[in-house]
Amino acid sequence: MFSFISKRLLQLIPIILGVTFMTFTLLYLAPGDPAQSRLLAQGTVVSDEALESTRESMGLNEPFLVQYWNWLKGLLTSDFGTSYHDDQPVMIKLQRAAIPTIQLTFFSMLITLLISVPLGILMAIKQNKWIDNFIRLLTFIGTSIPNFMISLLLIYVVCLKLKLLPVVTSGTYKGLILPVITLVIMQSSKFIRQVRAEILEQMDKEYVLSARVRGVKESTLLFKNVLHNSMITIITIFGLSVGTLLAGTAVIETIFSWPGLGKLVIDSISYRDYPVIQGFVVIMATVYVLINLFTDICYKILDPRVG
Amino acid sequence: MEHLVDVKNLSINYGPKTVVHDVSFTVDEGEILAIVGESGSGKSTILKAIMQMPGFGVCASKGTMYFEDRDLLKMTKREMINIRGTKMGAIFQNPSAALNPIRKIGIQFWETLNSHKRISKKAAYAQVLSIFERLNLKNGTRILNAYPYQLSGGMNQRVAIALSMIMAPKLLLADEPTSALDVTTQAQVVDELLRLKNEFHTSIILVTHNIGVAAKLADKTMIMYQGKVVDYGPSQEVLKNPQNAYSRMLLDSIPQIKTENPSAPSHGKKLLEVKELCKTYGKGKHTFQAVKYVNFQLSEGEILGIVGESGSGKSTIVKQLIRLEKPSHGSIQMGELELSTLKEREFSKIYANMQMIFQNAVGSFDSHMKIRTSITEAIRNMTQLRNSNEINALIDDLMVKVGLTPEMADRFPHELSGGQCQRAAVARALALKPKILICDEATSALDVSAQAQVVKLLQRLGKEMNIAIIFICHDLALVSEICHRVIVMKNGSCVEAGITSEVISNPKEHYTRNLLSSILTVE
Amino acid sequence: MDKVKKRFLFFSIVSLIIIIFSLIAPYLTPNDPYETNVLLGKLAPCKSYPFGTDSLGRCVLSRVMVGAKTSIFSALVLVFITFAFGTLIGIISGYFGGIFDSILMRFVDILLAFPSMVLAIAVAGILGGGLINAMLALGLTAWTTYARLARSHVLAIKEEDFIKAAKINGSSKTAIMFKHLLPNIIGPLVVNATVQIGSTMMGIAGLSFLGLGVQVPHAEWGSMVSEARTCFQLAPWTVFGPGIAIIITIMIFNCFGDSVQNILDPKHKAKG
Predict the structure, then answer these.
(1) How many whole angstroms from its chain centre is CA C160?
(2) Is A96-302 a domain of CATH 1.10.3720.10?
(3) For a FRET experiment, which of A148, A269, B296, B448 has its CA 20 to 30 Å from that of A57?
(4) β-strand B88-91 against B171-175: which pairing, if any?
(5) Residue in B with minimal Cα distance to C173
(6) CA-to-CA distance for A229 and A302, rounded, in angstroms?
(7) Backbone φ, ψ for residue A159 (5° rounding)
(8) List of chain A residues with pLDDT < 50
(9) CB contact under 8 A, A148 and C232
(10) Where is the ABC transmembrane type-1 domain positioned along the sequence (chain C) (predicted)?
């Protein structure tokens, strides 16, 4: 197991390097002069001298690869540069914004799991019965509504019509309720269908048939065999879905003014605050890759065949 | 109770279609009944009907099916669940199908026992080990701690048999239990089934297309054809003295070991010389040598057999000849040409001289194209013929030559039977007028009667058109019938080679003798 | 005709009607979608403004109708381009294997290391707003799905006997790729493409909503919702007009995708 994990970690190095290289290249190729952006973001008057000295201090006159190397060296010491907008270290800004996002994603993931797995199992057992069809209809509707519309509809019903919650509840736990519900609706609509499909797929396998022929109890079959085997795929899908979740937070945090990473990056985009965008992308990609590594490890634990 | 199983006038539907008509048979305690027949004869359907599993999609539409004096067709779902597992066991063709692939075997035995009667793991294991012992399964504890994927196919099938015997059922339903196995493994499983009968006094209904297996095991045999019983009685009588024309044809089609073979055409020109051919896969620690230093030659008009079990490297040899794989080492000489070092681009010219037909006949045609389109493609690629009328005339001609009608060329591959498709594949190969035809298990997937016809076709064409044939096959009996010379392969090496009649009548190697003795004959 | 085919026929016709409608809708608008009139701002739905007016007094219905073309066609075009490009790359990569394949797959791995919308937001943010930039941002990762799918199917199929048969019958590599491999793998790829229409529409609308897609005053459903959000409390119809239009359209295309999947992928059908 140890060698498996260390091998996977080693494999991550080129991927993370590629991620940083791509992120850096994207911003390098971005239209506009970073020095000018920085001056504009700070609200300084843009003069030729100011531009030149800023360029010099930002190391923009160095060749591309040197710039990349300098930036990468910074990343290794968790120095993501300083924000153009307010000269704060990017790392601090990201750290501050990370906590609300982690709260948001943690609760959404937890509730999604708690809802989706039992419902998926229930639907698979009651395949094509009314309960199955009904939940399927709901999940279909859930997957067809863009996340911003889910949020706005929730605000409309809960805050404006029923007046159960205030519209602006920034930062408090009350403020978590609607964003979490939005993400749960978004995620579980997809996830319930996938759980159901996977369990049905397992139930079609020959080993289930021959266990039934041997008279193995249905409960043993379902909970110890089908569910165990389905978990492998379910965990993988769940790991991958974290990607959509992380991205979804950008829209939801903006709508609900939740001070997380997503809101930070959208705000930074409007200021053209490139170092923050860079840092955000690198962090998100790294987290995503690590989550996938974690699902791989779960996979390995559950499936003895994986070498 | 007169009989353990008493089936009378049973008809079975698959959806709206009746696939089994008016079948009656009985099985007594400790008796083995074999139901034999070719694909589509309805033999497996009967087993499915007896098991009454929801999800099989079969239902008995007429007749009675008594098991221990109770009609299975009148039982409730609950009663049926109780009977399955305790009184009735089943094993299937796919040896890895019986077990959940990612849980330990011991746990799955315990789960089965525990479902019928509360039992501790320890007690369950003790019970399982005693059954293993009676079935002569060695290393019982190791098996219990293993995952199914860690065992070989044959071992898996034997474990599956033990698993279905755990509740000591009176009746075992076995659906093609040996068909996915090599001959030597097949022999072990057959022995195990015999032991069930002798040790446990279990009755078995065995469904198989392999008449040799039926002859070895069964007390009674039932031959089916298109959903009807054509012959039924004690195996001795049915197999020795068949009453029905179809049964006779079926029995005649089974390849028999022959020690006298057609003699090779005298001193044909040498076509191919293979020296020290090797194939290695992988690198470093994970290298695997699939073929090790194989030498042979092939002359005009001769049929060369290459036999061996799965993984013996027999297919890899021919794949290298025809550059579906690149040889790792050694030389392949065709006349003046050295094929092993030829560039890919230049190799395409060789295909006019050397053609191949495959095991999966239907799969060797693109399912989106009509047979005629596929053959036309080959002709346009490889010959000078461009006029479509001439091409179509050639195809019609070839179709007749292989025993099909020209009209069949205008069908899609899945609209033909396996045997017909294989003939069409032969027609496609012949369109290029090759000197060498490679047949890679070309008849193994076919029913015996279709196999016999395709083999005859190959023999006739070989003689008429002076084509040399390399015949890859796992069935030594079939090889002994048609091949002039034979190469016996094991684990990538050639263990014995020579004139077929000499190898068969006087095998020098232990492995060849083992192969020969594993063949189950009707006699 | 069985139920599956009927469903497919029904939803293809409905999807087609929507597409055609989006093309002719700009000529049928009851009012000028770009004409502002602050005096008529935030009017509730009435006879002359069936969906009401927005804060600048523009007719919401007219804007929804004009925006249909942008919202629907940008998604269709993007799906088609990524489908064609990804499939081509996937087939070539899977069939030839070797170094090209390894490099490509590493590149795809890196692209997939970014959560797709995160990369899209960053790219759109860097490139600046605009429909084309938003499509580029989404397309950057979208093609990889097709490439991976096509590649894995090619890897499975290229070992089949009919491909070997084609080779020993002298077919060139190009012929094998386009005459034999492509027709045999296209089914699941088409299914994937149709299933993606809805989510692509969602992606473009999402970027526009964030102000990273279509720019004001050009009408597009996502950006209309975004614009209307400020006066959501006073004039909810300004949000509901484009919002409901987008939900219904995505639903119809999702139904269409499902029905295509049921027809082309019988295994999936069994599961419902």
Answers:
(1) 33
(2) yes
(3) A269
(4) parallel
(5) B345
(6) 8
(7) -90, -45
(8) none
(9) no
(10) 72-257
User: pLDDT tens digits, residue range B184-236?
Assistant: 888 888 988 998 888 889 999 999 998 989 999 999 999 999 999 999 999 98
* H helices present in C97-130, as ranges: 98-113, 116-127
Per-residue burial over B129-151, b if 16 or more Cβ lie within 10 Å, else e, is bebbeebebeebeebbebbbeeb
> Is A111 an 8 Å CB contact of chain C?
no
CB-CB under 8 Å, C110 with A128:
no
Show the tokens assigned to A128.
């094509």
Residues contacting residue C163 through CB under 8 Å, at least 6 positions apart: C157, C176, C180, C181
Q: Which of C154, C268, C143 is nearest to C200 (CA)?
A: C143
**Single-letter amino acid code for the residue at A140:** F
Residues 6+ apart with CB under 8 A from A207: A225, B97, B98, B99, B100, B101
A215 touching C, CB under 8 A?
no
What superfamily in CATH does domain B270-286+305-518 come from? Answer: P-loop containing nucleotide triphosphate hydrolases (3.40.50.300)
* Candidates B358, B364, B366, partner chain C, best to mutate (most C CBs within 10 A): B366
Q: Does A25 touch chain C (CB under 8 A)?
A: no
* Three-state DSSP state, A231: helix
With beta carbons less than 8 A apart as the criterion, state whether A142 and C254 touch. Answer: no
CB-CB neighbors (< 8 A) of B364 in chain C: 161-162, 164-165
Where are the CATH 3.40.50.300 domain residues in chain B?
270-286+305-518
- Residue B264 is predicted with a pLDDT of 64
Interface test with A, best of B52, B87, B102 (most A CBs within 10 A): B102
Write out chain B residues lying below 8 Å of A303, CB-based.
Answer: 102
Q: Is A212's CB within 8 Å of B167's CB?
A: no
Are A74 and A30 in contact by the 8 Å Cβ rule? The answer is no
Q: How far apart are CA C168 and CA B354, in angstroms?
A: 9
Distance CA C147, CA B300 (A): 47
Residues of A in contact with C247 (CB under 8 A): 144-146, 149
pTM score, whole prediction = 0.86
* pLDDT tens, residue by residue, B139-178: 889 999 999 988 888 888 889 989 988 888 999 999 999 8
Closest chain B CA to residue C171: B381
In chain A, % of residues over pLDDT 70: 98
Preceding amide of B265 cis, omega within 30: no
CA of A12, closest CA in chain B: separation in Å?
A: 23
Q: Which domains does chain C have, with CATH numbers?
A: 3-22+53-271 (1.10.3720.10)
Mutate to test the interface with B, among A200, A208, A213 (most CBs of B within 10 A): A213
How would residue C269 be classed by pLDDT, with cut points 50, 70 and 90?
very low
Confidence of residue C267 (pLDDT cuts 50, 70, 90): low
Where are the domains positioned within chain A? 2-76, 96-302
Q: Three-state SS for B304?
A: strand
Residues facing residue B288 across a β-bridge: B281
Taking the C-alpha atoms of residue B201 and residue B199, their distance in angstroms, rounded to an integer, is 6
Average pLDDT over chain A, rounded to an integer = 86
Read off the pLDDT of each residue in B326-348 and give the average, rounded to a whole number.
90
Instruction: Write down the ipTM of this complex.
Output: 0.87
Whether residue B356 and residue C165 make contact (CB cut-off 8 A), yes or no, is yes
Determine contact: A233 vs chain C, CB below 8 A: no
Which of C115, C111, C136, C116 has its CA nearest to residue C126?
A: C136
Nearest CB partner across the interface for C162, out of B351, B356, B366: B366
pLDDT band at C242 (very low <50, low <70, confident <90, very high): very high
